UniProtKB/TrEMBL annotation:
Region (Disordered): 1-22
Signal peptide: none
Pfam family, one: Rhodanese
Keyword terms of this UniProt record: Repeat, Transferase
Organism: Actinomadura violacea
Coiled-coil blocks: none
Keyword ATP-binding: no
Domain Rhodanese, residue spans: 41-158, 191-297
TM region(s), chain numbering: none
Full protein name: Sulfurtransferase
Amino acid sequence: MRRLRVVTNPAEPLLNPGAEGQTGDVHPLIEVPALDRLLRQQTPLVLLDVRWHLAGPPGVDSYRKGHLPGAVFVDLDRDVAGPPGPAGRHPLPASGDFEAAMRRAGVSGDRLVVVYDDADSMSAARVWWSLRYFGHDRVRVLNGGYRAWTETGLAVTTDEPDVKPGDFFARPGRLPVLDAEGAGALATAGVLLDARAAERYRGETEPVDPVAGHIPGARNAPTSGNVGVDGRFLPPGLLRERFAQLGATDALDVGAYCGSGVTAAHEILALNLAGIPAALYVGSWSNWVADPTNPVATGDI
């Protein structure tokens, strides 16, 4: 990012625009064969199961029915977000709370973390983003998630591992974020992407928040368009084409929001794969409409 870039240490770049799809030295995605190879080689890593369903059954139920060997369950609502309120339905957690949750899951600063969900990485991306925001440099998302693992015929288990607490130290501010004022300004001065489904963007329906519509000037880019039918991310070239059609390139300031900052993190990951740095409006629509003075647009523009 340029004007909207928020970093703790400005001398340390968060994304190398010349390294396609990379944040630091670690590519944000890992494929099933590569993860299987690491596990077979007993490579030290932390495997986090972050399955989560909006208004659906608790993700821990899925975890208990079967998960990747050695995986530890992380609850997105409890461990990765602060209490819902005016700041949004999934606001940033306090640094100490996030640090404690990650340590309970075994996360250490020098150990690779691999995160997965059911298939499409919608919730896994929020954990990837959160760990990166709080300063963990080695985080990867399992492309295709649990479904890709099982479709390959690899084993799952119901055994829950004994977790040795980690030593992760939270250092917030390592990725750029937006507040409501910044998001509203970016919709005019740069490119602000609305990651929700088109009908929610247009204001035709709103199943969760009290007001329907979108931030004036935002452009609709549903996260479902970032992945194929198998839940895997599209190739970087196709992602670049998709975002370029929406006006989002690495030559502009770009940001993303959704309903509560979960699926928008998926948009940030997809933009990262396309080589486009972007800021996350964590509070998203649920924070925007908490202030009745914020304008609301409906329709296609």
